[in-house]
Amino acid sequence: MKIASVRPFILHLPLTSDSISDSTHSITHWGVVGTKIVTTDGLEGYGFTGTHAHLAADRLITSCIGECYAPLLVGEDASDHQRLWTRLARHPSLQWVGRAGITHLALAAIDIALWDLKAKWAGLPLWSYLGGARTDALEAYNTDIGWISFDLDTLRRGSAKAGEEDGFTRIKIKVGHDDPNVDVERLAAMRKRVGSRIRIA
Fold first, then answer.
1. Which listed residue, of 36, 57, 107, 111, carries a Cα 20 to 30 Å from 151's Cα?
2. Where are the beta strands (DSSP E) in 85-192?
3. Which residue has the higher pLDDT, 141 or 122?
4. Above 80 in pLDDT, residue 134?
5. What backbone torsions phi and psi does residue 44 show, to the nearest 5 degrees?
6. Per-residue confidence at 153, pLDDT binned at 50, 70, 90?
7. Of 119, 164, 171, 112, which is closest to residue 140 (Cα–Cα)?
8. Where are the domains of the chain?
9. Helix residue ranges, H only, 65-101
10. Is the CB of residue 110 less than 8 Å from the CB of residue 6?
11. Which region, left, alpha or beta, applies to residue 34 given φ > 0 means left and ψ of -120 to 50 means alpha?
């Protein structure tokens, strides 16, 4: 399972609304950094990471993957995962930058792509290869309806839609407004709209 190529990429998509905000960020796009590792026998492994919203930072991560880590991986045995991870994590030139932030996010994408390759080589989905249990249903929650930038009417409509139309039994609201009373008002409006049958995080 020799590595033939390592290609980083960015998925950067505009939001359907103008922007959304939490207590620290306001974003107009969703962004995810991806890495595609291809072996000489044609297997493709994918890993994802990123800041999820900041294109300039995501470009730094892809640069770290493509210019720093990729040359260390091409020609190596992808199944020698632990040795490769250690080699990348201890790469001398990146130790000057540090083992956090950009270098850590870049390494995470490669790590996941290597696991994905091993799972594909074994003929299993990654969750199964890693020992995950199979269930018929997984309870999810909606985390996209409670942004701080949403006014009360938008918050109420989104809460109702999540519970009544989309079937969520759990929803998330963002807090951290400059005025804590605004957070309390928003939470009360959401609770009033969905009642006690939906959990709010």
1. 57
2. 170-171
3. 122
4. no
5. -125, 125
6. very high
7. 171
8. 3-129, 152-200
9. 70-73, 81-89, 92-95
10. yes
11. beta
Q: Which pLDDT value is given to residue 93?
A: 81
Just give the CATH number of 3-129: 3.30.390.10
**Residue 70 CB contacts under 8 Å (≥ 6 apart), including other chains:** 5, 6, 7, 8
Question: In terms of Cα–Cα distance, which of 115, 91, 114, 116 is closest to 102?
Answer: 91
Alpha-carbon gap, residue 186 to 194, rounded angstroms: 13
Which secondary structure element, helix H or strand E, spans residue 13, and what is its range?
Answer: strand 3-14
pLDDT for 159 beyond 80: yes
Q: State how far the Cα of 47 lies from the Cα of 32, in Å rounded to an integer.
A: 10
| Ordered alpha helix ranges (H), 5-91 | 55-63, 70-73, 81-89
- Give me 71's structure tokens: 């040359």
Name residues whose C-beta falls within 8 Å of residue 20's C-beta, 6 or more positions apart in sequence.
26, 27, 147, 149, 150
What's the CA angle centered on 148, arms 143 and 149, to 5 degrees? 110
Q: Is the pLDDT of residue 53 over 80?
A: no
Length of the chain: 201
| 41 token code pair | 């026998």
